[in-house]
Write a structure and sequence with these properties.
mainly beta; two-stranded antiparallel ribbon; 28-stranded mixed beta sheet; 30 strands; single chain
Length: about 525
């Protein structure tokens, strides 16, 4: 009995000595060798502690360098609980793992290739080795991911507060291993990824789901000019990733709620609800293809005039090597509210409703797209449009029809000095518009009913019962408006065009106003 007790104590002491003093160095050696064997990367550990009684492992100041010896991952401390019972089934299992202040850095080249971390697997004869590895749960304290890429603001980062990861039958042969990843950020965003990883082919495929995604997180990666304020994103889809290239992501369903964007002081989008189906995002080919994008809720606040961009010479050295190509098969907007106000005239906001905006084959690849729109005001007025548009060549061809459009709300737009005021009037029009680069022209006919205009002293300046212009044309480049085949019913008044010219009679043909090259020229043709 005494001999058994002495043997047990001796064995226990030897086990403790091996566990506390020999095992840490051996585990450290295995970690370093296996990391290089499986990934071609080098691992550095400042200190490692192992408790053979609790099977608790503590790794201090761990750093991983890629195949080019550039550090891309480091963490202050890793605490892991090893489960030895799984060894009976040839399975290495960690019941829990805690990472303290992990820091991940990734860099994308101008050619959209991952250059940090760099992947270059070593040649090994151990391709048949199989590891049954599983991690039940991973906790992250103050985790940070820093991502730098072309077209993305420098030092974009987000915090990971919780991460759980399970992977089974990790191996170096051409066999898939299953894994499950759950990630949560400090903004309560949750990402779930279920998939397979093939180490021999360096490929990852899986299904993902994003819940409660906050656009304010990703605003850090986008230029400040966009003015993205808020938005909640829920989406799901698939991912196909052939390392070290970038992934191809498919979005099966997407719902973006409470979207708010403000572009300078001129355009504000608020409370938008946007849904999308079957979006394919290829980061390698820089292509986006979508089946359907819809929105049936939202408000647009528009303040004119909009700023005019200066046309500066383009420096070839700063041009992007390539630009994204995109195409959406169908684009539908319904029942959006528009509040339009002119800042110069400081007039009252005009309320409109974009009842419908539909587009087909919307793209920037030189393929003509088709658009249909219906715009309504508060007085039964309606504007319909059918257009053909080429964004790449900046070409547009549109037919516009206007019915019962009340002109009084637009009185302040008539003249910056408010010299004239539209008290009443209805507009009917059919116009054909052509836009080519900076050239804009329109041709068609228009009808004005019950038009009444007063001057600054509130005296009648123009009053007519009915005006028909069978032929109208406007040329923006030449600053010329031509009105022909004019029919007037019961017109009276005196309309001042400028200080030098006055139209005293609307029955005089071929009247022209504005003689300087920087002024608009209005030509009146046949009047009856």
């Amino acid at each position: 009995m005494k001999k058994i007790l002495i043997t047990s104590i001796t064995t226990l002491i030897a086990y403790a000595l091996i566990g506390f003093f020999y095992a840490p160095n051996k585990i450290k050696e295995i970690l370093v060798n296996k990391t290089y064997l499986y990934s071609g990367m080098s691992l550095e550990v400042q200190d490692l502690e192992f408790n053979p009684f609790t099977f608790n492992l503590i790794v201090k100041q761990l750093t991983i360098k890629d195949s080019q010896k550039q550090p891309w991952f480091d963490t202050k401390m890793i605490t892991a609980n090893f489960n030895p019972t799984h060894l009976l089934w040839n399975d290495i299992n960690f019941s829990s793992m805690v990472l303290d202040q992990p820091h991940v850095q990734a860099v994308l080249s101008e050619q959209n290739e991952m250059i940090l971390p760099a992947w270059q697997l070593p040649i090994t004869d151990s391709a048949s080795n199989t590891i049954d590895l599983s991690i039940d749960h991973i906790d992250i304290n103050q985790g940070q991911v820093v991502f730098t890429a072309n077209n993305i603001k420098q030092n974009f980062s987000f915090l990971i507060t919780n991460l759980s990861f399970k992977q089974h039958r990790f191996n170096l042969s051409n066999d898939d291993s299953d894994f499950t990843l759950n990630l949560m950020t400090d903004a309560d965003e949750q990402l779930t990824l279920d998939g397979t990883y093939n180490h021999s082919n360096q490929s990852l495929n899986g299904n993902w789901q994003l819940t409660n995604g906050q656009l304010s997180t990703w605003q850090k990666a986008i230029t400040d000019d966009l003015g993205l304020k808020s938005g909640k994103l829920d989406a799901n889809g698939t991912i196909s990733w052939l390392l070290p290239r970038l992934p191809v992501i498919t979005v099966n369903d997407l719902a973006l709620a409470s979207l708010s964007i403000k572009w300078q002081e001129h355009i504000t989008l608020s409370d938008f609800l946007i849904e999308a189906k079957q979006l394919i995002i290829d980061f390698n080919e820089q292509q986006i293809n979508g089946q359907l994008i819809t929105s049936k809720q939202g408000t647009i606040d528009l303040i004119t005039p909009l700023p005019i961009n200066e046309h500066n010479p383009v420096d070839d050295s700063t041009q992007q090597i390539s630009e994204w190509q995109w195409q959406i098969d169908q684009f539908d907007l319904d029942q959006l509210l528009i509040n339009w106000q002119d800042k110069i005239t400081n007039g009252q906001a005009i309320k409109l409703t974009l009842a419908q905006l539909q587009g087909k084959q919307i793209n920037n690849q030189g393929i003509e797209s088709e658009w249909q729109a219906i715009l309504k005001n508060q007085n039964q007025g309606e504007l319909t449009m059918n257009a053909r548009l080429d964004l790449k060549k900046q070409l547009a061809d549109a037919d516009i029809n206007i019915k019962q459009w009340q002109l009084a709300p637009y009185s302040t737009l008539l003249n910056k000095q408010d010299a004239l005021k539209i008290d009443q009037g209805q507009l009917f029009a059919n116009q054909h518009i052509i836009w080519e680069n900076e050239n804009f022209s329109m041709h068609g006919s228009l009808v004005l009913n019950e038009l009444f205009i007063t001057n600054r002293q509130e005296q009648p300046a123009l009053q007519l019962n009915h005006l028909t212009v069978a032929s109208t044309s406007l040329n923006l480049k030449e600053k010329h408006i031509h009105l022909d085949n004019i029919t007037i019913d019961q017109a009276s008044g005196q309309l001042s065009m400028n200080k030098e010219d006055m139209i005293d009679s609307l029955t005089s043909p071929e009247i022209t106003t504005g003689n300087e090259s920087n002024q608009w020229k209005i030509t009146l043709g046949h009047i009856q």
